[in-house]
Amino acid sequence: MRLTVRFLVLILLLLSGLSGCSSIGSAMKASPSLANATGFADIPMPYLEERYVNGQSRFMDVNGYHIHYRDQGKGDTIILLHGIFSALQTWDGWVDELSRTHRVITLDMPGYGMTGAPENPDDFDEANIVNTFAKFVERLDLDTFTLAGNSLGGFVAASYAAQYANRVDRLVLLDPFGYPQDTPWILSLGTSFPIQFLGQYVQPPVIITMTLRWAYGDPRRMKEKDVRRYVQMSQRPGARPIYMKTLEMVEERAENNAPLPFYRITAPTLLMWGEDDDWVPVDLAQRWLDDLPNVRLVTYPGVGHIPMEEVPEDTLKDLERFLSQGLDPFPGTLAEARHSMDDEAHSGG
Fold it and tell me: What is the pLDDT of residues 57-79, one digit of tens each?
């Protein structure tokens, strides 16, 4: 055990050196105590509830989860699904404006945010997440709706749209995960022993802040409130084992060459992709363009893996264009999407 702890310290020193002082400083600011800054301590639920549950929050019990969600605005319904290690606040840059014309439902996905782990953490896997979301939708008593998802939330959204094609009238996928790919080295490190074992008990927030910096195309766009949320949600009671299971789940999916059912999606689909995404590279957009029958693509130069968080105004503008005009304004190939964004940038649009 002593050797294992020494190995962890060595890894932390290496990561700290790679990430620089900014990640360390951000991690310290986001940690409510020194014990939290080391990554050993949980943050008590009352502390998190005070900061991340508000008057618009609702809860629904599904499949052993206490799902935290918000239901705002009136009009046609759109549901927004965040990615791994995130929470519903990742959509804050969209919700206020979008809820003027739509009913907007955001939720902390199973395993994350204030929803947290299931009663039996062994139940947590891809099928469980998709099934839980499907039951959540059933309980909302929706006929049809627009569905959007980022990263792993994009995979869940696409899986749901393929299985329940009659329910989803429009689909938006932002840097969606799902097809086989090479994963970042830090993910492979996180699934190796002894990191996988130690991660059940300690996850230093500097790793969280460093990972978030890598997820952004331009880390200068990171907001302090978002950094704080990522760090503090990683120290919610029960989060560490689920986060480690997530790394295993993502690695297994990235190595899985079995055919995916996304060809069954009938909803018009808009792909949004950050061109500087190091986690799910933009070249993978071609797989989605090849498999989905009715799809277009828009890309964002200099933007990383979480475009609605990094450039909310630009992505919201394209979402609203899609909702009002359909797919016609958007390119049909990866090359056209890149060329289109270059032309828009040069024209000052």
Answer: 999 999 999 999 999 999 999 99
Give the residue from 299, 300, 295, 301 showing the smallest Cα distance to 332.
Answer: 295
Tokens of 219: 């880390």
pTM value > 0.70: yes
CATH number of 144's domain: 3.40.50.1820
The helix or strand, by DSSP H or E, that contains position 271, with its residue range, turns out to be: strand 269-274
Tokens coding 231: 């760090």
65-72/102-107 β-pairing: antiparallel
Please enumerate in sequence order all residues whose Cβ is within 8 A of that of 100, keeping only pairs 6 or more positions apart, or say none: 73
Q: How far is CA 249 from CA 61, 73, 178, 180, 261, in A?
A: 24, 34, 11, 13, 18
Q: Name the residue range of residue 327's domain.
A: 45-185+241-347
Report the C-alpha gap between 32 and 241 in whole angstroms.
Answer: 21
187 within 8 A of 251, measured Cβ to Cβ: yes
Q: Give dist(CA 81, CA 87) in Å, integer.
A: 9
Domain count, the chain: 1
Quote the distance between the C-alpha of residue 287 and its chain's center. Answer: 20
Number of DSSP helices (H) and strands (E) in the chain, helices first: 16, 8
- Asked if 205 contacts 235 with a C-beta cutoff of 8 angstroms, the reply is yes
Is 215 within the bounds of a domain? no
Q: Count the alpha carbons within 13 Å of 68 in the hemisphere toward its beta carbon.
A: 21
In tens, the pLDDT along 314-342 reads: 999 999 999 999 999 998 889 998 867 65
What does the DSSP 8-state code read for residue 211? H
